[in-house]
Amino acid sequence: MGNSVFQGKSTRRTSAKFIGLRKVAMLRGKEIENFRHDPVMVREVMSVFGLKPGDTVVDATLGLAGHSKIFAEAIKPGGTLLGIDWDADILEEAKSRLSESVGVTKHFVHSDYRQIARCIRELGLVPNGILMDLGLNSAQIDDPTRGIAFSTEGPLDMRMDRSRGEPASALLNRLSPHEIEKLLFDNADERWAKAIGKKIVELRKEAPLRTTTDLVNAVLAAVPLGARDKRIHPATRTFQAIRIAVNNELEGIDEALVDAANCLADKGTLIVLSYHSGEDRQAKHAFKELAATKEFEDLYRKPRQPESDEISRNPRSRSAKLRAIRRVLT
To answer: At residue 29, does pLDDT exceed 90?
Structure first.
């Protein structure tokens, strides 16, 4: 499946570009190894958790272990760290980055974070802290072989777990204009959703959409020049909406949060970092439901956001929202 996006002929791409993409794919492991990752709102996360030696902490979206390296230092000696990630390549790199963290028992699971409760229970853990950072890893965004970013040429894949599921190219080459319109509007409030849906279907009659450039060209052909938002690229919302659909990113967040919270130890804390209004809405509702049981305390009526210095240092953190809930059994 992964190689199929490089095959076939199209008037909208050249073989030379794809030779370059193959080279990027072969070098990908080395690129990830050298990638620098800035964990979002780490000061706030550590302050809320209040971790101490011997604690158990779960990073449900491990990524490149930016948060977990700091967790490991806080819980040693005698602590336990569980890292979960749905990207097998990223998980392997995280293992390497955490190899120097000694004095801590480490577990790594290749899984969707929405399976967090099963992962915790199978290992018999009772966490003092659980983090769900729902943002994309920068290494994933900047990897052209994933096709997540519209700024670089790459296969139109967008899957976080490339061992399963349907790539974006297959999705867009089978959906009806109306289905594409609904997807774009529901996931990203794209005001040109109808025109973009029609243009995608029109262009795929000439040749199937296979690359990020194919999708960008479809958007540019659909959105009139004078109507384009000057602040963002015209394809921004389209790429966001399709990525969300490919990975089912807005499905089951609330259930996962409730399940995770019910795995916490007494006085244990669950933190969620969200970057999309749909994610934050589900987190808000889940925490409200939990707090109504009197076994949990919702720590913030309104979500916390990054300080200005962090946004200046790491612009991708600007849309982050932090919510936290604590289990109180005694």
So the answer is: no
Q: Which of 125, 106, 105 is nearest to 116 (CA)?
A: 125
Last residue of a domain, one of 220, 246, 272: 246
Indicate the number of domains in the chain: 2
**C-alpha–C-alpha distance, residues 221 and 196, integer Å:** 8
Q: Which residue's structure tokens are 């259930």?
A: 255
3-state class (DSSP) for residue 322: strand
pLDDT digits (tens, 9 = 90+) for 182-231: 999 999 999 999 999 999 999 999 999 999 999 999 999 999 998 888 88
Q: Is the pLDDT of residue 320 over 50?
A: yes
CATH code of residue 160 = 1.10.150.170
Query: Do residue 124 and residue 56 come from a single domain?
Result: yes
Residue with tokens 């290992």: 123
Residue type, 25: A
The CATH number of the domain holding residue 80 is: 3.40.50.150
* DSSP output for 153-218: --BS---SSTTSS--HHHHHTTS-HHHHHHHHHHHH--TTHHHHHHHHHHHHTTS---BHHHHHHH
The pLDDT of residue 302: 94
Instruction: Tell me the residue range of the domain where 97 lies.
Output: 42-134+249-327
Per-residue pLDDT, 101: 93
Query: What pLDDT is stored for residue 10 in this prediction?
Result: 35
Q: Residues 39-49: what's their mean pLDDT?
A: 96
Tell me the pTM: 0.82
313-326: average pLDDT: 93
pLDDT digits (tens, 9 = 90+) for 63-76: 999 999 999 999 99
Q: Are strands 56-59 and 79-85 parallel, antiparallel or unpaired?
A: parallel
Q: Do residue 281 and residue 321 come from a single domain?
A: yes
Which of 58, 176, 60 lies closest to 126, judged by CA? 58
Query: CA 65, CA 69: separation in Å to the nearest integer?
Result: 6
